[in-house]
Description:
With 364 residues, the chain is α/β, with parallel strands linked by helices. The chain has helices at 17-25, 45-53, 70-80, 100-106, 187-198, 227-235, 240-262, 275-293, 297-309, 323-348, 351-357; strands spanning 4-10, 33-38, 59-64, 86-90, 95-96, 113-123, 129-133, 158-161, 200-212.
Amino acid sequence: MADVSVAMATYNGGRYIRQQLESLASQHHLPAELVVADDTSNDETLLIVKDFARTAPFQIRLHRNTNRIGYRATFMRAASLCRSELISFCDQDDIWDARKINRCVERFSNPDVLLVYHDADVVNEKGQVIGTLDQSASSKPLGSSSAHPFGSVFGFTQIFRRSLLSLSELWSMSLDHTEPGGVRMAHDQWYFFLASAFGLAVHLDARLAAYRQHGRNVSGWADKQGTLNRLVHSLNFHGRAEQLALWEIAARRRAAILEQMQLLPTWGSRARIRPENYHVLAELYGTRGRIYASPNTIRRWTAFHLLVMRNGYRATSGGGLGAQALVADLVLGVPAGHLLSTITGRLGRSARLRRWLKRPPLPS
Length: 364
């Protein structure tokens, strides 16, 4: 089986990191190395890592950032330092099932597979199971049978081919569609996008990690089963017009990245997703944005009619907005889209609500 490097980003993770490290040492398929990139921790994190390194059954290499750069860039740096054929992202506060690496590596026997990801148990601070993380529903890449153009999965569930690192220079062009302010894609968004664009991202229907929730997670899990939670996430409290504008820009960025990748001899011929797909999607988001930005009813209706005439509400697997968007625009957007944008925008700027929502839902 192929060697695997584990890429871990740390920042003040001393409370839980030892249990995570011990779960790495218990893997049936041991990693060839653990690369720890630390983002200037000031607790006992580094001491714990160094102590573990003395008896670890694999090599540990430690890199410490000179200045704090955030989890996105720290994970990207950790991956860039890995040497093995396969790379597995690792959070500092979870617990891995002993079968995790072995089960994932088996799927790379198919050379078209560029990334494998799995599901997880969700646990509280004490390690007690409080839910499940099922990533099968919203993670299909654009162009597959049940796709979403911005599909993504959590990084701690991913193992990907090191060859994708050769595209890292283009990461600076990326844009996270969930975060205002021009933030680059998170590491997990980026590599899932690459794998989907140039090969296969394979879902493994198995819960192979305990995803710990402790109130200080950078991104987390929110139970979507309750009626109130489903309502909140369906409304997407981030300001409808400004969110659609962000999705438009993010789609154009992905198109531009794919255009650059098509010029690369190694990757151009492997593209499974065309830049035109994202250009079309950007136009649809731009038109839809007018439904929620304009205070004029006639203009909102005109934008909606234009989307219908362009078949813009076709299935997301076909590069469209989907039936859910059609219903939302007809029932809410055309009658009072600008008011909805104002209300949800104010709610979305609430720090307490943003913490509760954890991670914004996919476009709908």
